[in-house]
Amino acid sequence: MTHILAIDQGTTSTRAIVFNGSMQPVATAQEEFTQHFPASGWVEHDPEDLWQTTLRTCAAAIADAGLDPTDIKAIGITNQRETTIVWDKATGRPIYNAIVWQDRRTADTCAALKEAGHEAEVTQRTGLLLDPYFSGTKVAWILDNVEGARARAEAGELLFGTVDSFLIWRLTGGNHVTDATNAARTLMYDIHKGHWSTTVCDILGVPTSMLPKVLDCAAEFGMASAEHLGASLPILGVAGDQQAATVGQACFQPGMLKSTYGTGCFALLNTGDEAVTSHNRLLTTIAYQLDGKPTYALEGSIFIAGAVVQWLRDGLKVIKAAPDTQALADQADDKQDVILVPAFTGLGAPYWKPDCRGAVFGLTRNSGPAEFARAALESVGFQTRDLMEAMQKDMGGRGEAVLRVDGGMTASDWTMQFLADILDAPVDRPKVLETTAVGAAWLAGMKAGVYPGMDEFADTWALDRRFKPAMDDEVRTARYARWQRAVAATQAV
Ligand SMILES: Nc1ncnc2c1ncn2[C@@H]1O[C@H](COP(=O)(O)OP(=O)(O)O)[C@@H](O)[C@H]1O
Ligand SMILES: O=P(O)(O)OC[C@H](O)CO
């Protein structure tokens, strides 16, 4: 009985992966679910979809591994972060859909809070910015827009949680807990003191009685009941998906850096026990917390990475499948320098412009699908360079020169080579790309005593391919300068 079940509840799909005692994945089940867009800039999920896809993928992965649920030693959970659910304490029924991290409906609230001079205080305590991305203003929106919700919350009848918290509450039949990394994304958690900030909750208008208890990433979150999973199983590991990927990439030393390329792109730089305050609009967050001790990170969050490829496929319809971008980009005319700024849902770090929208520069009569494909892939590299520039300024030159990458888009050799070229730094792609699930599994397996400690786990990290910079310095400088001008122009419109 040494298998670990990892649940990865993501933005577009839910995955369950069974790992054996050697930390190798032996079975995976995945289900997509419906995205709801009720108004411009709004993104919601039905919490029942998140719950049902979790139950179904867990059952399918366990069966596919040829196991009985009783063969699972422990569960690790990782999840899309910031996404906000408020549910009835008595029934477990959500009172509104989950408001997804991408949702921009609270942009005006954030602007008003900034106007009122609250940003410095909020940032000092939480490490975050007053942006609709985070949970706090989404919770307040639900309380103010669902009839009777605020009074019920104040009476202690409603609970808030990020997706991990909601799934654990349901699986355990009422444990209201989360881990420090998810708490650190809510805009309500004091990352320095390690508890909910009553000051910030008051500013946002969220009653603290709604908030879950915060535990380490490897801790006893409760027993998932046999009614749901076929056996009573302990939940022993929890981390937000980007933090789980940081763990899965074994970025355990200060200065180590990973960047995950899925729908969006999230780069985390381990800063050890120092919570570095960014002066360049990056976030300060908790990378992981073990034995009561937080390890901090600087984070750069980009909202559109792989999603730009989905746009080529579903919006422009110039490709049939994501890998088609490679051949198209190769055909692009070198003399055309088309720049695409994919600010489809605003710009994230380091700009934080929720109302900004995308733009294309440098079009000619000859510009076509090939130039668009190349510009789309390049936009991911340029945006990462923006993050790396900000990180270098914040760290004053401290930090690794190597970037460890993962996520679906790292399958694109073309994109990874451009990334190395534009960063002028090596890019390391590991053999195992399911680093998010690996991170969650390791946290649970380590707590259960079936997986090794941190150092031995770090030694298992294996390189698939290193992409080395090959671009001429002058070309790199000129192309990045052009990108910066394009971003400035996009913000000016
Ligand atoms: N070969 C490829 N070339 C370019 N983009 C790709 C390729 N394969 C996958 N992608 C992109 O990667 C994303 C999927 O990555 P994944 O890590 O599964 O994302 P998420 O967990 O956010 O749903 C999609 O947006 C897709 O467009
Ligand atoms: O579900 P993903 O992989 O798109 O990740 C979403 C992030 O956690 C948002 O902060």
Automatic annotation (TrEMBL):
Residues 4-248 form the Carbohydrate kinase FGGY N-terminal domain. One of its GO terms (molecular function) is ATP binding. One of its GO terms (biological process) is glycerol catabolic process. It is an enzyme of class 2 (transferase). Residues 258-447 form the Carbohydrate kinase FGGY C-terminal domain. InterPro entries: ATPase_NBD, Carb_kinase_FGGY, Carb_kinase_FGGY_CS, FGGY_C, FGGY_N, Glycerol_kin. ATP binds at T11, T12, S13, T263, G306, Q310, G408. This is Glycerol kinase. It comes from Pseudaestuariivita atlantica. The lineage of its organism: Bacteria, Pseudomonadati, Pseudomonadota, Alphaproteobacteria, Rhodobacterales. The gene is glpK.
